[in-house]
């Protein structure tokens, strides 16, 4: 089915100047960018976005990292988009990510792991609504 997923290019990958290379991978896999916005997240933005991880030991480090520099946030649309995007990203820990994935190629650590992607269709709907009012999503 045609799905949408939320993608974030994190501060490490923005700083490395690889937004275009990552966008090319999305497009090469048939994922269409239907919304995008560069922003520097506030602590409240990052804490709200990652609220599900609030009780995890890595929460503070995660929020500190996500507010450390600008991020590029986009909505990707396409066939099976949630899983297709996860396959492009590779495992959360770049040391475990398969060769040729975004995290294997661009990420340094489990915190500075280059990209975020929604893990399920239901989560994607919540994450997309968090960053993009419906009017700012441009499907064909
Ligand atoms: P992301 O997909 O953005 O979702 C939560 C983030 O927490 C994850 O990517 C990692 O960057 C970060 N993180 C740090 N430590 C862990 C961990 N042990 N398990 C999962 N995510 C972690």
State the main characteristics.
about 140 residues, alpha+beta, 7 helices, 4 strands, about 40% helix, globular, binds adenosine-3',5'-cyclic-monophosphate, nucleotide-binding
Write structural notes for this entry.
- The protein has 140 residues and is α+β, with helices and mostly antiparallel strands.
- The chain has seven helices and four strands, in the order E-H-H-E-H-H-E-H-H-E-H.
- It has helices spanning 11-15, 19-28, 43-49, 59-66, 81-89, 102-106, 121-131, and strands at residues 2-9, 32-39, 71-79, 115-117.
- Strands 2-3-1-4 form a four-stranded antiparallel β-sheet.
- 34% of the residues are buried.
- The structure holds adenosine-3',5'-cyclic-monophosphate.
- The site of adenosine-3',5'-cyclic-monophosphate has 8 residues, from loops.
C-alpha termini separation: 16 Å
From the alpha carbons, calculate the radius of gyration and give it in angstroms. Answer: 14 Å
DSSP summary: helix tally: 7
Instruction: Give the H and E element order.
Output: EHHEHHEHHEH
Report low-confidence residues grouped into runs of 5 or more.
none
Task: Please give the number of β-strands.
Answer: 4
Helix-residue proportion:
25-40%
Overall pLDDT confidence: 97
Structural class: alpha+beta
- Cα shape: globular
Strand composition percent: 15-25%
Enumerate the strands of the largest sheet in spatial order, edge to edge or round the barrel: 2-3-1-4
The biggest sheet, with number of strands, parallel, antiparallel or mixed sense and barrel status, is: 4 strands, antiparallel
**Ligands:** adenosine-3',5'-cyclic-monophosphate
Catalytic activity: a 2'-deoxyribonucleoside 5'-diphosphate + ATP = a 2'-deoxyribonucleoside 5'-triphosphate + ADP; a ribonucleoside 5'-diphosphate + ATP = a ribonucleoside 5'-triphosphate + ADP
Subunit structure: Homotetramer.
Keywords: ATP-binding, Cytoplasm, Kinase, Magnesium, Metal-binding, Nucleotide metabolism, Nucleotide-binding, Phosphoprotein, Transferase
Cofactor: Mg(2+)
